[in-house]
Amino acid sequence: MTPAIPDRSPTPWPDIVPPCRIGMLVPSSNTALEPLTAVLAAPLAREVGIHFSRFRVTRIGLDADADAQFSTEPILAAAELLADARASVIAWNGTAASWRGFDTDAALCAAIEARTGCRATSAIVDLNAALARLGIRRLGLVTPYTQDVEAAIVANYARAGIEITASRRADRSDNYSFADIPPAAVHAMCRDVAATGVDAIAIVCTNMRGPGIVTAIEAEFGIPVLDSIAVTLWGSLRALDIDTAPLSRFGRLFALPAP
Fold it and tell me: What per-residue confidence (pLDDT) applies to 258?
């Protein structure tokens, strides 16, 4: 009798062409959000793929030159490349609307949808949706930004009825350098803010290494921590009606039931 030949074929990979695609618009000097988003999204690899397109952003400030980086046409050109891949939703994975005004992202999302035919969202649209869902009124803020940018963020949230009662910043303007801030430093900033008694913490920047410290702060202080990278993925998945519960180990936000 001929002996059976053992099956030494490689273990099959997950389906590498999942049925849903999230397109993300990335500031050109950002090095954190793509690898961190990949880690966060890995449990859903069979359901959703993440694809990225860049446009030039190198410095964050309130001056005209810095603001011009967020002009609409370069962003729409990058969005059109994602539309070529038939993205199911396109997310602007940046936080500029936090200091430029929330209406700028509302207008940008409408422009992306009109130009590409794809549904659109953004980090700040999704952050504000999460804050509303959680009923947050006293917010702690952690950013890498300078004092004037932080002040603009505080003022925008005050107009929306959310008081930022504690904040910590790294006083940087070079966008590339934001990813150089060690997670331990981000953790320390969050601990300082959480100790003041806020209802939640927002880490506002998609080039800051925040996702890895979320659960530690939540466990220690019992409050939600809304990291911009994580919240953009959360909002994008919600837009596609994909259950985020498989990602709940990354933070309370992902455990929220569908509305």
Answer: 81
Cα separation, 45 vs 103, in Å, equals 33
Quote the CA–CA distance of 225 and 250 in Å, as a whole number.
10
The DSSP bridge pattern shows strands 138-143 and 163-169 to be: parallel
Q: Which residues contact 204 (CB under 8 A, 6 or more apart)?
A: 95, 98, 127, 141, 142, 143, 145, 153, 228
Query: Containing H/E element for 154?
Result: helix 147-159
Give the number of domains in the chain: 2
pTM: 0.93
Verify that 199 and 234 share a domain, yes or no. no
Two tokens, residue 84: 């070529």
Give pLDDT tens digits for 83-131: 999 999 999 999 999 999 999 999 999 999 999 999 999 999 999 999 9
Strands of 107-243 (E only): list them. 119-122, 138-143, 163-169, 200-203, 225-227
Average pLDDT in the 2-16 region? 58
Flag whether 198 is in a domain: yes
